[in-house]
Amino acid sequence: MKSLLSLIKVSLNHDMNIFKINTKKQSKFSKIGLPIIITIYIMIIFGVYSNELIKQLTPVHMEYFALTMFVMIVSFLTLIEGIYKSGSLLFNCKDDDLLLSLPIKKRTILFIRIFKFYVFELLYNSLFLLPAIIVYAYYIHPSWTYYLSSVVAIFLLPIIPIILSCIIGFLITAFSSRFKGKSIVQTIVTTIFLVAILFFSYNLDNIIKNIAKQATSINDLITKLYYPAGSYIKLVTDFKVTEFLLFILIHILLFTIVIFILGKTYFKINSNNKRVLIKKKTSHNSHYEIKKHSPTRAIIKKEISRYVNSSVYIVNAGFGLVLFLLGCIIISLKFDSLATSMLANSKDLTIENVKDVLPTLMFGFVCFTSFMTSITSSTISLEGKTFNILKSLPIKPYQIMKAKILSALVIMIPCILVGDIIIFIRFQFDIISILLILLASIILPIISETFGILINLKYPKLDALNDTEVVKQSMSSMIATFMGMGISLLNIILLFMLLGKNMSNHLIIIIFMSFYTVLCIGITFFLYKTCDKSFNNIIT
Amino acid sequence: MIEIKNVSKKYGDKVAISDITFNVNDGEIFAFIGHNGAGKTTLIKSIVGIHEFDEGDIIINGKSIKEDPIACKREMAFVPDNPETYENMKAIDFINFICDMYEVGEEERKKSIKKYAEIFEIDKNLNDPINSFSHGMKQKIVLISALAHNPKILIMDEPFVGLDPKAVFDVKKIMNEMTKEGKIIFFSTHILDVAEKLCSKVAIIKNGKLVKTGSMKEIKGDKSLEKVFLELEG
Lengths: 540, 234
Description:
The structure holds two protein chains of two kinds.
Chain A: H1 2-15, H2 28-57, H3 64-90, H4 96-101, H5 106-140, H6 144-156, H7 159-176, H8 182-202, H9 204-214, H10 218-225, H11 227-237, H12 241-281, H13 295-308, H14 311-342, H15 351-356, H16 358-372, H17 387-392, H18 397-427, H19 431-458, H20 467-471, H21 475-500, H22 505-537
Chain B: E1 2-11, E2 14-24, E3 29-34, H1 40-47, E4 55-60, E5 63-64, H2 69-75, E6 76-79, H3 91-101, H4 106-119, H5 135-147, E7 153-157, H6 165-180, E8 184-188, H7 192-198, E9 201-206, E10 209-215, H8 216-220, H9 225-233
């Protein structure tokens, strides 16, 4: 027990410190101020959402439905994130050799890894759930049992999505570890899983209708859909000690059983993963290719090779691009039916109206995809100890950063352009709209990726145990994600405001692109001026 | 020539190296010795431009590493204590990558990669991914990539760790050949026998301060280097 506690302490101390950065001096602001600002920012946003939702539900006395919504959304996001994080969080960790050489049970190591995953999701979920719980209490003035149930629920709710994602992560890793191109197989299977889940959620209407027919109340419906959410709402609206204890027991039992079962195969899968690497080794081929490249091209090649060898990196950065392409294909194929269903409740708007503003909407889609995709916000952190190689090379830091940005653009821009072309062909945009959107498809990714690298230069994390810690759980990636969300939201609001003023598509896009072109020049110049100093400040 | 002039560096309040001054001339093999945590790696990383230092200057063939780091780095190659490589790359791709950074011509790199890969008996593994290599094999890859661009100055931090006896012998031979061409070899080591036999000059560092520097003969006199070192440490 003592060793378990000690392991938990060390693991959490090392891995959960997402605000630790590898620079010469970490200011008090980045150590304390920034985490507080990010936390408050997220909680205020979700507090406002909860408030709006509960206000709407108060007249029908269904305030609890806001809690249900939040629990369902947070659980769904935990599941989605967990699926592509679990492979990297649980397998091939850098501390494998150290932990396996210690006199502790292998199952304990698995427990520690899943527990770390749990603690992170617990913190993440709390940011979204706590505001809803507080706002609900403000409106309802519930009894003490509500607070007790809510506190316990916050701790228990991440368990089932984590268990499910770990099982799926296990299956994907076990399957992909049989192949030579393990990373690529893992990425493809993970992407298929994620797209399938999104497709399933999109088509959930019929399933819900069937369950609703058999449900006697909304609570019953929710419980049948997702037990933890339904059970928590039952405790909120009608607290019973037996149900409360059952709620706790089911989660703890499930967690224990899953650790027990997965523990039986975990190390077999982990060592299979490594065996593939060793098999690869035995090529014994003395014919090798020697080719000269420019330094920039060599760095781009290295970066792309790093990218394709990390499935969590590909899925995290590339999933938005895949959704963009799928979105463009679906809009092209099913525009009429989609527009009809979206305009079902609108008396004033017609499909023709939507078609008229399609260039602006497409521009908004490109903005959203560009700002929500940040490959470079992890690129320096992923160097880890190899950052010293870059530091010792006779290459200017700006040239390295430029090559890193270019490698991200090589991945991003072609995907966006393919989506653009599909839409251009299907909807026959005029030439000015085409040119403006093409310009946006180049300028906006440059801004997003330059911004990403600036954040990563400021907040590098070079001592991560696996790629997930960098890609999903580092300060840099979190800032890039939340800033991307903020900018995207602002863009959408402004676009709709301008559309409401009956401005032409061209004028709207020109206004936006004028601003973004100036921003692009400004941010590139800023990187040029500051990157030497930031680069040299990073220590391994 | 490497000129280290009054170099000091602190990590927070802790002094890592203090007022270090010495020169390494062309054609010299220079050993840098000291106990663990004495400041050897800090100074080495300052010379190769990985660490910035607080005071003093380091001049590489007449150019300051502070003022013109790129020109200085062009003259040097660095072999770290722990072989740092891009694990997902093939060995040949890593070596090619380093050569690209130094803009080495195709023919020149072909010759030197072939030469050193054969010396280190790793030519049949160059197509393999680095993450399947042992520590020693990785060290050989780092050595080949450092030597492939024909540096004027070779800086190494504990270069013999993890190498097999044959590779250690080969590295020593390469070091000797390089100095005959007027190149500089500067390395840290804990293997005092090797330092004693191989090096023309030596510097001993203790708690961040240089306690002795000079030719090997001057430093050890009639004693062994090990004895001198232990006396200084005591």
